[in-house]
Amino acid sequence: SQQGEEDPQALSIQEGENATMNCSYKTSINNLQWYRQNSGRGLVHLILIRSNEREKHSGRLRVTLDTSKKSSSLLITASRAADTASYFCATDGIANSNSGYALNFGKGTSLLVTP
Amino acid sequence: DADVTQTPRNRITKTGKRIMLECSQTKGHDRMYWYRQDPGLGLRLIYYSFDVKDINKGEISDGYSVSRQAQAKFSLSLESAIPNQTALYFCATSDLGGGGFNEQFFGPGTRLTVL
Lengths: 115, 115
Hints:
- Chain A is an all-beta fold.
- Chain A has strands at 5-7, 10-14, 19-24, 31-37, 43-50, 55-58, 61-66, 71-76, 85-95, 101-105, 109-114.
- The termini of chain A are far apart.
- In chain B, a hairpin with a 2-residue loop joins strand 7 and strand 8.
- Chain B is globular and about 40 Å long.
């Protein structure tokens, strides 16, 4: 079953504004990742935050993780029209008997940035 | 050239037909995954493979089978396609990273329509 749940489902802002998306999950995780998907295309990895980290930055992206609340947020600052896409959080899910995990993706937040 | 390629990119078929979707990667990754994406449902894991001899069912494996022909190739088959398998299918790869998993790299997707 899907682990991550993004909120809101859809977000519409103007260029220059900040966009904040949230992700909640149900069980303990090792890592949480955020991905971006342009319409009809494959997902692209944005950022990974480990369970022992609370905040991480990458360019205009800021990710926070609160393991006590089982939630994460993705902030895109000074948004641009090119940021229009769907954003997914992904948590480690099914454990292989040897090591490693497949990912569970949420349903995504659809972000529209208008000029 | 793209690191993860999928063929075909689009396919329309009829109920009951056998369909194979192919995925190839040049990233040298051991881990490969098949997902399907339906509107409003995000990505769901069908099968995954952590090496050539390792095949695992995902969340929604019923009606699908896979073959890991080589490290670089992972095929998804629908033995007898049905209309509710109409979806966007993605292949992804990842390396073995610290913490159990690493970022995944996605192919461009195959849009499959079953009539």
